[in-house]
Design brief:
alpha/beta; YbaK protein
């Protein structure tokens, strides 16, 4: 069990855990998840940790098929600028390794923005906190668990 799964169980949130054989040679963890689980790349979401111009860290959740628009993310998070956080900062803050960062169950609660495209699906897939492990849940439940805002960030 990961902290993300434990949190969902503790809060009685409806979810489904999907496991697949992770290939260490895979160049994109999210695209690998979509392929191995047989689902659209638009429905599998990656979790990126950003450093804001205030020096605070924040989380952006977006489809693995898309690239983050830093200006849109910064605007949604109420700041002027955002950049990708350093790997060491990501791992220290979240408690997860890159490629397995979940927006749920992080060590520190961070401001979170989820791309509004998540709202078009009855469920979305996010990392469960380990490479080769995905969580399927409703976008509204992710918002409730993280106090996220929905905005266009791609």
């Amino acid at each position: 069990m990961t902290p993300a799964i434990n949190l969902l169980k503790k809060q009685n949130i409806t979810h489904c855990v999907h496991e697949y054989e992770h290939d260490p040679a895979s160049s994109s963890y999210g695209l690998e998840a979509a392929e191995k689980l047989g689902i659209s790349e638009d429905q599998v979401f990656k979790t990126l940790v950003l450093v804001l111009d205030t020096k605070a860290l924040a989380v952006a959740v977006l489809p693995v098929s898309a690239q983050l628009n830093m200006k849109q993310a910064a605007k949604a998070l109420g700041v002027k600028k955002a950049a990708m956080a350093a790997q060491a900062d990501v791992e220290r803050s979240t408690g997860y390794v890159l490629g397995g960062v979940s927006p749920l169950g992080q060590k520190k609660s961070l401001a979170t923005v989820v791309d509004e495209s998540a709202l078009q699906f009855s469920t979305m897939f996010i990392s469960a906190g380990r490479r080769g492990l995905e969580l399927e849940l409703a976008a509204a439940d992710l918002r409730a668990m993280t106090r996220a805002v929905f905005a266009k960030v791609i």
